[in-house]
Amino acid sequence: MSMKKPGRNDPCPCGSGKKYKQCCLKTESIPAASDRAEAVPKAMQWLTTRYKQPVREALDDGFFGGLTDDEYETLGNLPRDSFEGIMTNAMEWLLADGHLTLEGRERRVADLVLGRGGPLLSVEQRRWLENLMAASLGLYEVVEVIPGESLLLRDVLFPERPPVLIREKAGSRQVAKFDLLGARLVPVEDHFLLSGAVYMIPRLHGLELIEELQRELEGVAADSPDAKEILGTILPCYWLERLLTPPEIPRLVDKLTGEPLLLIADHYRVRDWSALERALSAEADVEGNRAEGWSRVFEGQDGMWRRSLSIEPGSRPDRLKASYRTQAYADAGRPWFEGVAGSAVTFVSRELSDPRSLLARPRSSPAPAPATPAQLSPEALTQIIETSLHNAYAGWADQPIPALADQTPRAAIKTPEGLEQVKFLLRTYEHGEARQARDQNRPPVSYDFLWRELGIQP
Questions:
Q1: Residue 176 CB coordination number (10 Å)
Q2: How many whole angstroms separate alpha carbon 138 and alpha carbon 118?
Q3: Taking the C-alpha atoms of 77, 81, 82 and 88 in order, what is their torsion angle to the nearest 10 degrees?
Q4: Distance CA 298, CA 136 (A)
Q5: SS3 180
Q6: Which residue, 298, 270, 265, 213, is CA-closest to 373?
Q7: Residue 217 half-sphere exposure, CB side, CA atoms within 13 Å?
Q8: Distance between CA atoms of 369 and 362, rounded to whole angstroms?
Q9: Collapsing DSSP states into helix, strand and coil, what is residue 284?
Q10: What CA–CA distance (Å, rounded) separates 279 from 345?
Q11: How far apart, in whole angstroms, are the C-alpha atoms of residue 31 and residue 403?
């Protein structure tokens, strides 16, 4: 026997006391996605209306409980959009993992919202909240992005799980390959969606977080309530601390001399290319040719060969550029080069830049007025950074790395766990370089040379 559908003016069958047209008929005509989007705001409005003070205490003691007084003060001074983003994550955490203390007794927020006497929810809204509250926070690496369509996420803590395809229009436009993020994956019909709260984790500190979570999760079943509690406690706390701590720009130094790395380029007008080629080819410590450029090389105390000077054709047929990575190399290199080249070249100008200022400068901020007539082109900047990186990472495969528990990368890859750590570290280097190159409007430097040195595939 089928139940007759109520008329528009009949009492709503949900028991609200309202007419059907003023209650559930409205939600039946709303697309499922729009209806789901109202579930969290509706639940939070109900919670804060009924339990305003307990909600505040639960957030202060739980989600924000790990902050110092200074960090908590910083929180209140954030721009509005940043603060709203934090509160979005905080409210979802409260619904999925929070507890309220009511009359001396702890109550799960999920039980209050979904239990008897909770907010009036449509079928779709209730289903969304049930799945959201059951989902555990996880730590994922973005392994594939189709902007405007989807993300493919790999579980970093439980790599044996297959990657999960997420249908996400807005989010897929905001993330990049190898981004590291904390999120809840909510099942909807035959696919998954991101719940709404996302915790972007800087890859630079990713291994530190992964190791902490792995220690806490040792011996804990992946889908257990204990695992859910551990992830729901550590991930938000770590994310907040990183978010509220000003980023440190690393001090870049030449590995051999310990001097600060600089981007120094001397520009010359070439008066006689043939004479210059003959002069450079006669030097025993110079390699290269006019087409590819020249390098002055030397053997360091560690037995590795390095460049103290790079010479390459300029942007005009009669121009040449000599590049150095430290002030000491430039001080010694310029008189040497001009002595070798003689009258074949005439000095024009010198460019001097600190890589730290280039890395720290947002793309949208105006660049300071140049101190020299020429500016570095994107390709030239990439080439100078590439030279610096190749020198900085010389011998990297056989040096102890703190992120690898002071093992060398070559030793670490001998175990499955160590291999995964080394791959994560290399992807971190690539991820950071790709984002910096994008922000500086230049081509990225490839790290394939490190993968090849270890004999492993990206």
A1: 12
A2: 28
A3: 120
A4: 55
A5: strand
A6: 265
A7: 25
A8: 16
A9: coil
A10: 11
A11: 48
Residue 137: both structure tokens together? 């926070």
Q: Are 185 and 192 in contact (CB under 8 A)?
A: yes
Answer whether 306's CB lies under 8 Å from 394's CB.
yes
What are the beta bridge partners of residue 312?
321
Composition of the chain by helix, strand, coil, percent to 5: 45, 20, 35
Q: How many residues does the chain have?
A: 458
- Cα-based distances in Å from 269 to 246, 274, 281, 325, 334: 44, 14, 19, 21, 14
Token pair 């392994």: residue: 143
Distance CA 157, CA 140 (A): 8
CA 266 to chain CA centroid, Å, is 35
Comparing CA positions, the residue from 268, 269, 296 lying closest to residue 281 is 296
Whole-structure pTM over 0.85, yes or no? no
Give residue for tokens 């009036």. Answer: 120
Q: Report which residue type is found at 192.
A: F
CA distance 228 to 135: 8
* Strand ranges (E), 271-395: 286-289, 293-299, 305-313, 319-324, 345-353
Tell me the pLDDT of the chain (458 aa) as tens digits. Answer: 333 455 667 665 555 556 655 655 554 444 566 788 899 999 999 999 999 999 999 999 999 998 888 888 888 888 888 888 899 999 999 999 999 999 889 999 999 999 999 999 999 999 999 999 999 999 999 988 888 888 999 999 998 899 999 988 777 788 888 899 999 999 988 789 999 899 999 887 788 899 899 999 999 999 999 999 999 999 999 999 888 876 555 566 776 777 887 888 999 999 999 999 999 999 999 999 998 899 999 887 767 778 899 999 887 899 999 999 888 899 999 999 999 999 999 999 998 876 655 555 444 333 333 333 345 678 877 887 888 788 778 788 888 887 787 889 999 999 988 898 888 888 888 888 877 887 788 888 888 989 998 998 87
Please name the residues in contact with 196: beta carbons below 8 A apart, sequence gap of 6 or more.
40, 88, 92
Closest among 381, 315, 313 to 351, alpha carbons compared:
381
Q: Which is it for strands 191-201 and 319-324: parallel, antiparallel or unpaired? A: unpaired
- Distance of alpha carbon 98 from alpha carbon 117, whole angstroms: 18
Q: What is the CA radius of gyration of the chain?
A: 30
The residue to which tokens 């960090």 are assigned? 71
